[in-house]
Amino acid sequence: MSDMYTGSCLKEAIARMQDPNYKPGGSKSYKCNLCNDKGYIATTLSGEKKKLTDVLSSQIDYVRPCKCQLEKQMYSKMKYSNIELDQYEKKSFETFKRDTEEADKMYELAYKFLESDAQGVGFFGKSGTGKTHICTAICNELAKRGVQHRYFNYRTDIQRLKALVYKHEEYNALINDFKMATVLYIDDLFKLSKNSNGEMNIQEMQIVFDIINSRYMNKKRIIVSSEYTVAEMKQFDEATAGRIREMIDDLGMKVEGVNRRFKQLRIKTA
Known about the structure:
Layout: H1 8-18, E1 40-44, E2 49-51, E3 60-65, H2 67-81, H3 85-90, H4 101-114, E4 120-125, H5 131-144, E5 149-153, H6 154-163, H7 168-180, E6 183-187, H8 202-217, E7 221-226, H9 230-236, H10 238-248, E8 252-255, H11 260-269
Parallel strand pairs: 4-7, 4-8, 5-6, 6-7
Antiparallel strand pairs: 1-2, 1-3
Helix pairs in contact: 2-5, 4-5, 7-8, 8-10, 9-10
């Protein structure tokens, strides 16, 4: 995994991108003192790394992007994702607690997804077991690698889509964001979709199928978290469940550990 930005380094990188007046070390001229805002670092024929402004073109062997360019790419991916920027800092692989066998398996599964060309990865089961944390950590790593990703907060975004169903242009623009993003992270899939009679909301199921089917057909990658397992989804939406099952293949995991939110609360109030 990338170790370019961790902990406070990530926080500093985001701060640099958010502050248009940021000047490192009190510099009056440049936002980046490494490359003097050229965006690239030169490697000379003798192997030295220098600013483009400090070397003749005839002495250059090759150039590579400066760290500031990588920061810009990372920041643009974070902004597009719809994940709050502070969540990237809070929910990373570094902050994910691998204190149980189950947590270790979650971490390893996330790592396997990142290092493979698998179409999907999914974490299913109890609330508070770290599903959202590990999925956001994957997005964190995608941002560092410059990979576009989009966050679908199920309860919030499904309501936005339902409200726009009869406003075709706006609806299509929004749903196409979710269909076509390089990687889509669906958080808490089908959360609160059942009514008081235990029946699933048909409109929500139709919208979800449309998104999942499009990504399935176009070989777009997904990250999924849900309190429902795929087997449970099959009971009310076999078509969607079947596609998710095929997309995640062997990168699906049922989590059954303790609710960490309540565990942390007990520690704080003990």
